[in-house]
Amino acid sequence: MPYEITNADVAARAARDMRRLASTVIELTEEAARGTVHVGDAAKIEEAKNDFEEFARGAANFSRMVFEQYRENLKKAQEEAAKKAESEAAQAEEKPSEEEAPEKA
C-alpha cells in the first residue's frame, strides 16, 4: 500500500487519492475508446488499479478498526452507566435508613 490508513485524516487523504486513481483509469479508458492510446497507458491503468485495491483494503481495515473502537466505547459507557446506577441505588437504600435513625432516637 502506498501508505497505511491509521486515522481519519489519513483516511480522507486516501479517499482523495482513490478518487484521483479512479479518474486516471477512467480518462485513460476514454482516450483508448476514442483511439488515442499512448505507450505505457496500459501499465498506468494497471498500476492505478493495484494502488486502488490496496487503498480499498486499507480503508476496509480502518473501517473495521473504527467500528471496533465504537463497540468498545459503547460497552465501556454501558458498564459505567450500570455502575453509576448501582451506586445510586445503593445510596438510595442507605439514605432512608439514615433518615429513620434520627427519628427513632
Question: What does this entry look like structurally?
Answer:
Helices cover 86% and strands 0% of the residues. Helix 1 runs antiparallel to helix 2 (41-104). The chain is built from two helices and no strands. The longest helix has 64 residues, at 41-104. The model has no long low-confidence stretch (mean pLDDT 89). It is mainly alpha-helical.
Structural class: mainly alpha
The major beta sheet can be summarized as: none
Rg over CA atoms, rounded to whole Å, is 29 Å
Oligomer kind: single chain
Helix content: over 70%
Give, in order, the helices and strands: HH
Average per-residue pLDDT, rounded, comes to 89
Features of the shown structure:
single chain, 105 residues, mainly alpha, 86% helix
Question: How are the secondary structure elements laid out?
Answer:
Elements: H1 8-33, H2 41-104
Helix pairs in contact: 1-2
Q: What's the short version?
A:
Helix content is 86%, strand content 0%. The protein has 105 residues and is an all-alpha fold.
